Amino acid sequence: WAQLAATSAALLYALGNASVRFVGHLPMSLLGAAVMTCATVFAGGFALVEAPWSIQPSWGSIIAMASSSLIGTAAGYYVFFYLILATGPTFVALNNYIIPILGVVWGVVFLAEEPASMALAALMLILAGITITNSGLRRERRLNAVLDRHEDRSR
Q1: Diameter of the chain measured on Cα atoms
Q2: How far apart, in whole angstroms, are the C-alpha atoms of residue 65 and residue 67?
Q3: Spatial distance between the Cα atoms of 67 and 47, rounded to a whole number of angstroms
Q4: DSSP classification of residue 72
Q5: Quick check: 21 and 83 in contact, CB under 8 A?
Q6: Helix H or strand E segment including 149
Q7: From the centroid of its chain, how far is CA 124?
Q8: Is the full-model pTM beyond 0.70?
Q9: Distance (Å, rounded) from C-alpha 116 to C-alpha 103?
Q10: CB contact set of 108 (below 8 Å; sequence gap of 6+)
Q11: How many CA atoms lie within 13 A of 136 on its CB side?
């Protein structure tokens, strides 16, 4: 089940990034609410496997979960959709590749870990991919700016 959940989450995340451009005219609060609702329904299906009716959480844990969901996740999605609409889905997706880099750096700095040579090679591949993609994005933005100026002059 764990592999199915992780694979499904990655697929849905990618679909969410790509589909934002089709619903960009909607308010960000509505997009965030839609994502939270879909995530609740999707995760709820996997949660039923764990028999949640047998658990008796305290009121403190319920309040902590609700506040984390509403404040952290909902506010995070609001910013997330704003970034996608402002910069595009490719730029936002590239930011996820920074997470493993920071994980290795924090491990070295705070836990005195020594990264393996494979981890360093993987980090170099990630940085190369970010650089190549960003150079393509910059070229595309420059081309769009030139085309926009040309259209303005021809009017």
Answers
A1: 70
A2: 6
A3: 19
A4: I
A5: no
A6: helix 117-154
A7: 21
A8: no
A9: 13
A10: 114, 115
A11: 9
